[in-house]
Amino acid sequence: MHNALTSVLSEPDYKVLTDLILPIAGGTTQIDHLVLSRFGIFVIETKNMSGWIFGGADQQKWTQVQKRSKRSFQNPLRQNYAHVKAVQKILNVDQSTLHNFVVFTGTAEPKTAMPESVAWGLKDLGKLIALQKMQILTDVQVDTYSKKLRGEALEGTKAMRNEHLKNLEKKVAAKKRTPTKIPAVSSGQIACPRCGAEMIKRTNRRTGDAFWGCSSFPKCKGTRKAT
After folding, report:
1. For position 13, what pLDDT does the model report?
2. Which of 115, 158, 162, 202 could form a disulfide with 213 if both were Cys (CB 3.0 to 4.6 A apart)?
3. What is the full DSSP assignment across 139-199?
4. Model confidence pLDDT, tens digit, residues 169-222
5. What are the residue boundaries of the structural domains of the chain, listed by start?
6. How far is 87 from 83, CA to CA, in rounded Å?
7. What DSSP string runs through 2-51?
């Protein structure tokens, strides 16, 4: 897919890194694709799936339906948010420079309204990336960040991939043992339904009603009702 992605994006303007295994606290994380440009850093989760896809930005689980079978899988935007945070920590950049994107390849089709950051095919992904026209990074920064990520990335050997899979299995087992806790509204630690970033409590100037707004506003305009 690396070659296919670079064919969609103009190479002088975009640097594409593929299959990065990065060290994080307590283990490793694997990023499918990462695109660096003057217009920001795009962290991309790839889903090669078929059938019908049902899901929403604020849902923890999405659903795949194939003929007579149905299965649930983690909301890929939430899954990729962990990758975004890993990149942010390594590069020590503001979250506003990072974009959380998911692309479905294969023959999968959406059957519910999907977030704007979800693409269906590489051409669609290229169009979404191309929509970002504001230059927020210099060419020097892009080169520096690219070298930094390549330097931090662990060698993709068979042993390292096996170790990464073991880390994932440990995390899944730990989640099954620990009941899921929903953050209290007063804590402010609520995920944006569009990009997964932290939300901040705000007030509607016209009505005076409280609501949750994305911390990345105006780049992301995700909101939630305050209860």
Report:
1. 86
2. 202
3. HHHHHHHHHHHHHHSPP--HHHHHHHHHHHHHHHHHHHHS---PPPGGG---B-TTT--BE
4. 555 555 555 554 433 344 446 778 777 788 888 887 777 788 888 887 777 888
5. 2-175, 185-225
6. 6
7. HHHHHHHS-TTTEEEEEEEEEEETTEEEEEEEEEEETTEEEEEEEEE--S
What is the rounded distance in angstroms from the CA atom of residue 49 to the CA atom of residue 89?
A: 30
Quote the CA–CA distance of 216 and 195 in Å, as a whole number.
9
Contact 51, 66 (CB under 8 A): yes
Q: Answer yes or no: is pLDDT of 161 > 60.
A: no
Asked whether the predicted pLDDT for residue 58 surpasses 90, the reply is: no
Q: Which residue has the higher pLDDT, 212 or 36?
A: 36
Q: Name the DSSP class of 60.
A: S
Q: Hey, is 73 helix, strand or coil?
A: strand
Contact 215, 199 (CB under 8 A): yes
Token pair belonging to 43: 């962290």
Amino acid at 173: A
Helix (H, G, I), strand (E, B) or coil at 208: coil
Query: Strand 109-110 relative to strand 40-48: parallel, antiparallel, unpaired?
Result: unpaired
pLDDT of residue 223: 85
Q: Which residues contact 119 (CB under 8 A, 6 or more apart)?
A: 101, 102, 103, 104, 125, 127, 128
